[in-house]
Structures are given as structure tokens and as C-alpha cells.
Amino acid sequence: MNKLQFFLSLLFISLIIACVPSKETEQSLSKKGAYDPDKQPIKQAEFLSCGSSFDMQMHLIAFAEDMERKKVMYNSEVFSDCSGMFIRLLQSLEKECDQYDFLDPKKARSSRDIAKWYYDQGNFLMIKDARKIGHLIQAGAVLFFGRSGKEYDHLNIDLLTSSQGIEHVGTVTEVVKDGAGNVVSYEMFHGRSTGKIAQRTSYHELRPKRKELPPFGNWNQQLVGIAYVITPKK
Question: I need a labelling partner for 78 at 20 to 30 A (CA). Which of 61, 66, 111, 181 fits?
Fold first, then answer.
């Protein structure tokens, strides 16, 4: 093998290596089946950064406090159910983060429509085992829950976006961690249910006091999906 042939061989090998995606360059949020924490790395920072001077958590808390002061009752006005309150939150972010993609509420109004929109953007994960995804829960995480009392074992986007799937959505504003830095509970802002105002709740625990309740659930609603409030443009 002469020097030219040797050089071309090295160049060919380097090109092959360069075309193999590393874990760091994999799609941040997979659209294939339920999330496997051992196989699918997540880079939440890509979905929660809106500029160096913008504090996502402070914005979420300020928005929640404003809604709580107004005491907006569930379904008492336009955009006052769970998905409607979430759309209001998105609209407040859109004013600050115009470099990101936001859903059109005329096309994605229900919690299931919202989940499908995030899924189509590559910013949605189905949750197989909520006990393993505490590291994904942080301020700015959008959490989707199934029907009250229903257990989900085999998840797919068609099921979750059907009438038997997602029933509720809310946004994490704060988390509580144990001494080892693991998330053990979180606070979530959401339009709650009939007769209640939109507000933050903090009963969402990794190990609920009532053993029949699902981990990190919304009372008896299983956590089945997670997204992040802002979505990078494709």
C-alpha cells in the first residue's frame, strides 16, 4: 500500500466514524415507545433555556401566583380547564421566548391534542415506570396523566391520544429532593377540577402515603408522559 492509498484509507475510516451518532447527538426526546432511562439520554437544558437573562422557574412561579390571586375556577371562562390553563402559560412564555415553537390552540386544545403536538415535535416521552424518571422532573416539565384509576402497561401514542388515554396536564414549578439529590416530590400548577381554582399542588410524591396511588401521579391518575414547555424550532 503506497502513501496515497494509506491516506485515503484513513480518510474513509474517519468519515464512517463521523457518521455514527454518539449518545450526545441522539435525538433528545425519543418518539419510539416508552422511555428507557438506560438507553435514551435526555438533555433537558435544550428545552428549558430561553436566554441567559431569563429564569424559567421564576417565570412559572410568577405566572402561577398571578393565576392564584385571580382565583380562576375550573371551566368558569375561556381557557380555564387544565389544558386551557396550560395554553395560557404557553402564551405568557411565547412573549419571552419567541425563538421557540409554540402550539396553535386552535389546532391543539385538549390535553391529548397538546401531547400529540409535543410528540410530533420530538419533545415528548411516554413513561413506562415513573419511579425511574425523577431526574427528568424539574421546573418547566409538562406532565401528562391518564384516566383516574386506570393502569397503563403498554403505552403508545395512539392509546394516549385516544379517549382512553391522557386526561390531565400540568406544569412543574418546583421539586423537592432528598439528601442524595433525587427528586422525591414536585409542585405542579394546573387547572384542577370542577369546583376548584387553578393553583399549585404538592401532593405528587415518588412514594405516596397511600400505597394504591401511582408514583409521581396526580392523585389516582398515572403519570404517562412528559414534555418540556418550550420546544426548539426544527
Answer: 61
Please report the pLDDT score of residue 15 as a whole number.
32
Q: How far apart are CA 69 and CA 144, in angstroms?
A: 25
Burial class, 57, CB count within 10 angstroms (exposed 0-12 / middle 13-18 / buried 19+): middle
Give pTM, 2 decimals: 0.83
Give the max Cα distance, the chain. 82
Residue keyed to cell 398515572: 222
More confident residue, 27 or 186: 186
HSE of 199, CA atoms in CB hemisphere, 13 A: 14
